[in-house]
Amino acid sequence: MKSWPPALRQEKQPVQRSKSQTAGTAFTVTVYITDDNWNVVASSTALISITTEDPYDIHPPNASTTNGTQTFSVEFHRGVGEQYRVTASTANGETLASYTSPLITSNYGTAKKLQILAPGEIPVDGSDAGKSGSADTWVANTLNTVTVRVVDKYFNRNRYYEHDRKAHRDRSVFRSAEHAFNQRRSERNIRDTVHRDYHRVADNGFDRDRR
After folding, report:
1. Which runs of consecutive H residues, i.e. helices, occur in the chain?
2. Do 6 and 103 sit in the same domain of this protein?
3. First-last CA distance in the chain
4. How large is the greatest C-alpha to C-alpha distance in the chain, in angstroms?
5. Is the dihedral of CA 43, 45, 46, 51 positive or negative?
6. CA spacing 20 to 30 A to 58: which of 7, 52, 154, 178?
7. Nearest Cα to 88, choosing from 39, 29, 37, 41?
8. CA 89 to CA 170: how far, in whole Å?
9. What is the rounded distance in angstroms from the CA atom of residue 20 to the CA atom of residue 101?
10. Are residues 79 and 44 in the same domain?
11. Do 131 and 57 share a domain, yes or no?
12. Cβ atoms within 10 Å, residue 45
């Protein structure tokens, strides 16, 4: 039995290719029932179970094969760059060998919402609540710091906006430096003009005195 998206098969053994997936976006896992030489056994109707190493995702329901194959929809919840494997096994007591996919990198999904973390709360990317712990007690007239995160639908921090904000900040710094440079150049031009005018007036006065 083997599973991997996309389903690939060779005569001797399955092809394994490393892939990455986005948390919150479903991908298809195809399972084949095969003999020892990876030939599909079309007569099999084994009940298949799919599990993953993602600690927070929901495994798809068990399903029987048709003509020796079955597809399942899998969606990772935790997307922090960790790698997980997907395992296919029989769920009705049959003695078919299970199959485990290569490692799949799970990345954060599209930004969907903002998350606030008060002091005492810890982010838990991919979980239903998105955080753990309890907020500390606040004292009136005392400043407290909260953390705001841009997250996807499963509370994975979306780092794209951090890069975008840094690029915007870098552009702002450049514009400020450029403005300061232009201002200094303008001031220098004014000083040079005043200096030339002063000497021109002084020279003209000296010539009149000589006459």
Report:
1. 160-210
2. yes
3. 113
4. 122
5. positive
6. 7
7. 29
8. 52
9. 12
10. yes
11. no
12. 13
Task: Say how many domains are in the chain.
Answer: 3
My answer on whether 102 and 6 are in the same domain is yes
Q: Which domain holds residue 126?
A: 114-151
- Retrieve residue 14's tokens: 């399955």
151 within 8 A of 115, measured Cβ to Cβ: yes
Are the C-beta atoms of residues 188 and 195 closer than 8 Å to each other? no
Q: Are residues 94 and 129 in the same domain?
A: no
Asked if 196 and 142 sit in the same domain, the reply is no
Return the amino acid letter for 74: V
Alpha helices in 113-159 (DSSP H): none
The structure's pTM equals 0.70
Give every CB contact of residue 82 below 8 A, 6+ residues apart in sequence: 105, 106
What type of residue sits at position 70? Q
**pLDDT tens-digit series, residues 4-53:** 443 333 333 455 555 899 999 999 999 999 998 999 999 999 999 999 99
